[in-house]
Amino acid sequence: MAATRVITPLDHLLTEVQRALDTALGNPPASRPNPARDTPDVVLEDDERRHAAGLMRINHVGEVCAQGLYFGQAAVARDPSTRAHLLEAAQEETDHLSWCADRLRELDSRPSLFNPLWYAGSYAIGTLAGLRGDGWNLGFVVETERQVEAHLDEHLQTLPAADQRSRQILKVMKIDEARHADHAEQAGARRLPFPIPAVMALASRAMKAVAYRL
């Protein structure tokens, strides 16, 4: 009878490194079909295409950050159910990441040049949040997803009217983000104290300003 292999700290480290490379530099496949698959594409004016690409690059960065946050949190989560919740949410964020990357290619654009930095910073924040306990872990999920919902609403309003392919992707993403926040609240998320949500919002605005162009 074959002996069961023991997972070592090195194995965990290599897993996290692979996740980081796949998220920040690769193009991990989606587990669900692209919501825009049946939506006809149209030729946008140059300024419309650049604006749509800037918005979708912001959304792609948002998914890179979400992956870093959730994987960092999951790495130190104490309760197996909390870890499972985080990894399940991360899988759906992988779908979003893939869909945004697809749309960027269609718009003749590219992801942010700073994706490795965005991922590393988010992973560090996720790890620190997780070390405070599972309630704080889930609280960060709720606040992150609520802020993402808000900027998706903004993007849905400011996308070029003709860009229905991007719009279909963002609509599904918004539904998923709301569900992640609701599930985290039901699982016992703690409300983050001031000034953490304000700091998160400020960091998000800075990230969006950079990612829109770079």
Structure description:
The chain has helices spanning 9-24, 46-76, 80-106, 115-131, 134-158, 164-186, 196-211. The chain is mainly alpha-helical and 214 residues long. The protein has one domain (16-24, 41-211): Ferritin, core subunit, four-helix bundle (Ferritin). The longest helix has 31 residues, at 46-76.
Q: Can you lay out the helices and strands and say which pair or pack?
A:
Elements: H1 9-24, H2 46-76, H3 80-106, H4 115-131, H5 134-158, H6 164-186, H7 196-211
Helix pairs in contact: 1-2, 1-4, 2-3, 2-4, 2-5, 2-7, 3-6, 4-5, 5-6
Can you summarize this structure?
This protein is mostly helical and 214 residues long.
What distinguishing features does this structure have?
214 residues, mainly alpha, Ferritin, 7 helices
